[in-house]
Amino acid sequence: MFHRSLAAIALLIGAAVVAGCGASPPVQRVEILIHYSHFSPAELTVPHGVAVTFVLINEDPIDHEWLIGDEAFHERHRTGTEPIHGERPDEVSVRAMSSAQTTLTFDEPGDVDFICHFPGHEAYGMAGVVHVT
Fold it and tell me: What is the pLDDT of residues 81-121, one digit of tens each?
């Protein structure tokens, strides 16, 4: 009986190792705190080609948004902010005193800005940059 249990445990461990070998690359996790209408950190570095989960923690008593993209993307949002964003991973609404998360993979190195485009928030300094290496 002991040998069968040992064999079963060895089989389970072996299966886990084999499953891990074919798994996709690990997801990098980054937390961004929203406090007093600012992002912290406001500057971070991630590798290209790796899935990155951004966990957005809003400690403010007001809603915010976290929009990430190139200059043309941000220009569109400066002139037409939506009050709530749906299921786009690069456009996240973060309710007051709550958190949200999204996962993105950056295909190429470069800098990508993230901004809250609610009225006056960008001018107040609610912006940051992801350096993709």
Answer: 565 666 799 999 999 999 999 999 999 999 999 999 999 99
Cis peptide before 47 (omega within 30 of 0): no
Q: Are the beta carbons of 59 and 37 closer than 8 angstroms?
A: no
Question: Tell me, what's the pLDDT at 8?
Answer: 40
d(CA 128, CA 41) in angstroms, rounded, equals 8
Extents of the domains making up the chain:
25-132
CATH superfamily, domain at 25-132: Cupredoxins -  blue copper proteins (2.60.40.420)
Q: Nearest Cα to 97, choosing from 58, 124, 125, 56?
A: 58
